[in-house]
Amino acid sequence: MKRSNQPNCGPQHNANELTQTTVQTSKYNCSITSKQKKNPNHICKNKIKLKNLFANIAQRLHRVYAELHNSARKSTEAMSASKLTANCNNHSVNQAVKKWLGS
């Protein structure tokens, strides 16, 4: 029996079959279905390329989401603290809030 040097990419596909690749990270599932007929000899390489591409995209989206979330959290904290300072008539509470804010 002839051995193949290609990595194992799962079951064999025929040329008329639709291909689907799913990549899972800690937060995202990304999948793509190709509606073009594929040459079965290239499906394995294409699946690996798609997995790497979607893993890269998912990681970038995760970083952008984390930065946006962190920025929104900081903005909300600052806004809440300034409202608290403005609404407090008690001098000692205002001083405590200012000390907490580092100003």
Automatic annotation (TrEMBL):
Region (Disordered) spans which residues? 1-20
Q: Which domain of life is it from?
A: Eukaryota
Q: What is this protein called?
A: (Mediterranean fruit fly) hypothetical protein
Q: Which organism is it from?
A: Ceratitis capitata (Mediterranean fruit fly)
The taxonomic lineage of its organism, from the top, reads:
Eukaryota, Metazoa, Ecdysozoa, Arthropoda, Hexapoda
